[in-house]
Design a protein that fits this description.
This protein is an alpha/beta fold. Helix content is 43%, strand content 23%. Helix 1 crosses helix 9 and helix 5 (143-157) runs antiparallel to helix 7 (203-214). The radius of gyration is 19 Å and the shape is globular. The structure holds 1,4-dihydronicotinamide adenine dinucleotide (NAI) and pyruvic acid (PYR). NAD(+) binds at residues 7-12, 32, 62, 76-77, 92, 115-117, 140.
């Protein structure tokens, strides 16, 4: 499958690199308002291909996206140290007004995969501008936060993150909700597993993992200016679910008719992802405080999105 990537900065290039390494695309096309950057990223990623899987990597203008099955949208501004994601909204909404038009002219059939922040509201913006059905405009949402949660929880329990089934819900941002009530390790509720391996999840452990997930982007941006490897791998994972019609359960964002009483809001829930995009949405078991936190997260997103109109 041909994959377009608009925005060839840190996130876009990491996604292209991850796709090349995973064998996730037959062709990757980088588009950026800086043609020189797109060309340089394409050349660099192409040099990884002989060590990985066959894949044609090139740069182009919007016309070069013709025939793409998925177009990743990673264009726009990123957070500066200490800045939150929601503060990027008006600047990135302006970028999307140009970008979506170019993508749709060249590749009207492509599924849109949004990475630019604030990713949930940018997913809603992309959905509105493109007039595509919501299930074909997917935001990476909390796929990265879920990976961070599984990584920290797996570390505490002494098991691989791949054996941890736990999700972060709601906003990809400060109001996100770590769902402990639905978390499993192997097939066991996570608290039972923790007791069996002698690693109880105390309030202190819970708070450490929560902060580790919720504050990860702030820490990494403070240390190296931006985050890109985690999200690059997450975007490649979503593309593969679409390309191979995997029907994988992933926590991704899309415009959702109703969540905890809040209507028409884009946020993350575990969703079944395949060739046609989001095929189904799951409602995980939540503790009462988690349900309330999810409602608050939905309200934050709804209210901030409303400031755009
Ligand atoms: N969803 C997630 O989990 C994550 C999202 N992000 C977000 O991804 C976005 C990109 O971040 P980085 O790659 O670090 O930024 P970056 O600054 O390295 O790259 C952004 C690229 O967008 C391009 N661009 C800007 N306006 C454009 C336009 N109108 N048309 C075409 N290209 C345009 C720029 O030339 C630049 O190359 C940011 O909004 C950032 O907050 C970053 C990390 C994780
Ligand atoms: C920057 C960002 O959104 C993240 O790393 O979570």
């Amino acid at each position: 499958m041909k994959v377009g990537i608009v925005g060839a900065g840190m996130v876009g290039s990491a996604a292209g690199y991850a796709l090349a390494l995973r064998g996730g695309a037959s062709e990757v096309v980088f588009v950026d308002r800086s043609e020189a950057l797109a060309v340089a990223q394409a050349e660099d990623v192409a040099h990884a291909v002989p060590f990985a899987h066959p894949c044609r990597v090139r740069a182009g203008d919007y016309d070069a996206l013709e025939g793409a099955g998925v177009v990743i949208l990673a264009a726009g501004v990123a957070q500066k140290p200490g800045e939150d994601r929601l503060s990027l909204l008006s600047r990135n909404a302006e970028v999307f007004a140009q970008v979506i038009e170019g993508v749709q002219r060249a590749a009207p059939e492509a599924l849109l995969l949004v990475a630019s922040n604030p990713v949930d509201i940018m997913t809603q913006v992309a959905c509105n501008l493109s007039h595509l059905p919501p299930e074909r405009v997917i935001g990476s949402g909390t796929i990265l936060d879920t990976a961070r949660f599984r990584s920290l929880l797996g570390g505490h329990l002494g098991v691989a993150p791949q054996s941890v089934h736990a999700y972060v819900l709601g906003e990809h941002g400060d109001s996100e909700v770590l769902s402990w009530a639905s978390a499993r390790a192997g097939s066991e509720p996570v608290a039972r597993f923790a007791a069996q391996v002698g690693a109880p999840i105390t309030q202190t452990v819970r708070e450490r993992i929560d902060a580790g997930v919720r504050r990860a982007a702030y820490r990494i941006i403070e240390g190296k200016g931006a985050t890109w490897y985690g999200i690059g791998a997450g975007l490649a994972r979503i593309v593969q679910a679409v390309r191979d019609d995997q029907r994988a359960v992933l926590s991704v964002s899309m415009v959702t008719a109703e969540v905890e009483g809040v209507r028409d809001v884009a946020l993350s829930l575990p969703r079944v992802v395949g060739r046609e995009g989001v095929l189904a949405t799951l409602s995980p078991e939540l503790a009462p405080d988690e349900a309330q936190a999810l409602r608050t997260s939905a309200e934050v997103l709804k209210e901030t999105a409303g400031q755009l109109t």
